[in-house]
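Example (one chain per record):
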Amino acid sequence: MKQSLFIARLRGYVRVQLRGKECEGLINPMMEKGFSIWDIQAAPDGKLEFHILVRDFFKLRPLLKRTGCRVHVLSRHGLPFFMDRLGHRKFFFGGLAAFIIGLYVLSSLVWQVTVEGNDRIAEADILQAASKVGIHTFQWKFKLKKSEDLSREIQSMLPSTSWVGVEIRGTHITIKIVEATIPDRRPLMNPRNLVASKNALVTEILSVKGRPMVKPNTYVRKGDVLISGTIGDDQNSQVVVANGKVRGVVWYTSKIEAPLTRTYKTYTGETKNRNYIVFGTRALKVSGYGELPYTLFETISERKALAWRTFASPLGWLHEKVMEVQMIEEPIELAAAKKIGLEQARAKLLAETGADSRLVGEKILHEKTENGKVYMEVHFEMEENIAEEQPIVIQGE
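Predicted structure:
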């Protein structure tokens, strides 16, 4: 009975030679017992050669004793003999197979996600939307949907985009963004007045369109009309879009706290190095054991990963340099502390009132020193734009 060659190679077979006077008499008993033999050839001197499975080879002994024949193995074939020839190389090939399997597994994961083309949209918002559809590091690529479906779902979560593309290349996914063009906001064209946004002393008024209602050096309260959008007289009037520029002096009172000591850090020169083997988000320390002898310290980290072309491996190493620091406290003269406090208050006020504002006066109303700080109450005068829009409501509309 002849086995398929593939199955025979898996099970293992041998080419044997039978020697004896009654060799031909063994063929029928072997066939009756279901032995798998094939390619039977008669050799000189009454010898027979054929292929036989290894499992059936060891069942020949009773038949050989009955006939007095002897068997000689000419060649061995199949997987069992191949593995036996490997001998001590089994571990090498096992390691090679494990490496190939590991490389396949690692190449099936997403290791890097980048965003291109965004300008107004924050990258964090795009990555958050991508994460909701399954695009994130350490994700199995076979779990991801088609690129077209991923693009459509991400775009539905980012209404300020006109197009989103997802490109999967190896272990790297690139999200390409085309932002929607937002038309410039048109200025308000409905009839309006310009009114005071704060209590102030008017220093400048420039009416481009509309009727000025105040003059320089006039004190106005919040809500007073500065430039009216109603022009003409009682018999012949018209409402327009008031336009112009009104600046005035606004008063602010700030409470300032300035410390009389300054604390800064310095390095002592004492350092300690720590090294780790890193795999993904996990790290194994290999040097620098023990507790740190420093109370205050800073750590500088340097991580490197194994990479080949565009493939970035999660395996790498991390080097940490721990440096001891100490905090030094030194006194500040009262005049210097007051100067620092005033400068900080001025900068904060200018940031709140706008880039076109300017400081025109300041006066310290109250000052005291207590608990290592100087406390001041300061009156500031800021010249700034005080006009804001107010729609004109026309009766009947």
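Caption: The mean pLDDT is 86.
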